[in-house]
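As the next step, I wrote out a protein sequence along with its fold in token form, included below for the reader:
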Amino acid sequence: MAARQVTPTAAVVLAPNPGPMTLDGTNTWVLRAPGAESCVVVDPGPLHAGHLEAVAALGPVDVVLLTHGHADHSEGAARFAELTGAPVRALDPRHRLGNEGLAEGDVVAMAGLELRVVATPGHTADSLSFQLEDAVLTGDTVLGRGTTVVAHPDGVLADYLASLRRLREMGDLVVLPGHGPELPSAGAAAEQYLAHREQRLDQVRAAVAAGAATPQQVVEVVYADVDRALWPAALLSVRAQLAYLS
């Protein structure tokens, strides 16, 4: 659970919750300017005592930010707030601890840094990214490996494609994702994601034209070569794709 320095301002602590949907585990990001005493923590991760204590030991913590409310990112936030005394800010009021939320265009100026809040819905309705001078934290909108699920009905494919286009405009900013390794270029990663989504839409259209009548039948055709452990997530994405095409 040791922190790994990724950029001059960002270190990551990997949560011990690996799995088909979380890859190696949730990335908890610890952000501070060089020489700053305090830090900002993004996505404390699951309710795992050892992980939360290891991250808290890197404090003092000024504030906790959530990229979105899925449990693998947010479940430990309340306990982490108890350990550190830091407020928890999120777009969704259900996940906030304190008076302040987060919204598009907000700037969080703490720990010697300025983080600009970028609304990137699609994976979920409440998904946010946080832009630094040299990097962008993308939560589950862009992962370090593979692709993400559009969690229908909360996730909406049209919103997700628009979010990817926003990230594409960030060019050579380093991607600091919610799962998996960092990526060297937000622009290149988003372009690859957009191409993948277009390919999947073409495959869904073809499956429907060939007679697939239900979302499950589309999954069985389009995701035939994908580990069946991922089919429940694929089903959510297919529902989102079919809604987009309707």
